[in-house]
Design a protein that fits this description.
Strand order of the largest sheet: 1-2
Helix content: 55-70%
Strand content: 5-15%
Number of helices: 3
Radius of gyration: 45 Å
Structural class: mainly alpha
Shape: rod-shaped
């Protein structure tokens, strides 16, 4: 009698046959007791080789799949890291640009302040100097107002995406 055995992983192996013999043993006390011989469970060498090849092939495939999963996870993390770094670098560059602009504006304010102080110290009645100082003061006030508005509408103060619409003309006067 033979039993046909198919591997659980069909693509890796071919079916093999296991010979099983049934022997009737006659005992004086018991007649007709059937037993399976112990040598019937041993596989022949060819079958054993196929089983081992199936095992190693399956093991190699599992290792390959696990490596691929790790690569995909690593790539996903790397991609996220690159996106995070790009966003962070963009924010850093924006902050740097804002700081440079503020520094330049501050330097301009200091220069204008120095000119006004020098004009006051000269104690002159020269109208040209007074007009120049008056113009500088007006420009400084406008620049300070712009700076304050920029500070209020950008950075941590602009969490809600505020939009300001300024209209001028007769239509603006009609609304109360």
């Amino acid at each position: 009698m033979e039993i046909l055995v198919q591997s659980s992983v069909g693509q890796y192996s071919k079916p093999f046959h296991i010979p099983i013999t049934r022997v009737t043993v006659m005992d004086r006390r018991r007649e007709g007791i059937s037993q399976l011989t112990s040598h019937s469970f041993f596989l022949n060498t060819e079958t054993r080789e196929w089983a081992m090849q199936d095992f190693y092939t399956l093991r190699k495939d599992v290792e390959t799949v696990l490596e691929r999963v790790q690569e995909i996870r690593a790539a996903a993390g790397l991609k996220q890291l690159q996106e995070d770094l790009a966003a962070f670098s963009q924010e850093t560059l924006q902050a740097l640009t804002d700081c440079k602009d503020k520094l330049n504006l501050l330097c301009d304010f200091k220069k204008q302040k120095r000119i006004i102080k020098l004009t006051e110290e000269m104690d002159s009645i020269d109208s040209v100097f007074l007009q120049e100082a008056s113009g500088i003061i007006k420009e400084l006030n406008k620049a300070l107002d712009r700076f304050e508005l920029t500070q209020l509408l950008s950075g941590p103060y602009d969490k809600e995406g505020a939009v300001i619409t300024i209209t001028a003309g007769a239509a603006a006067l009609m609304h109360r």
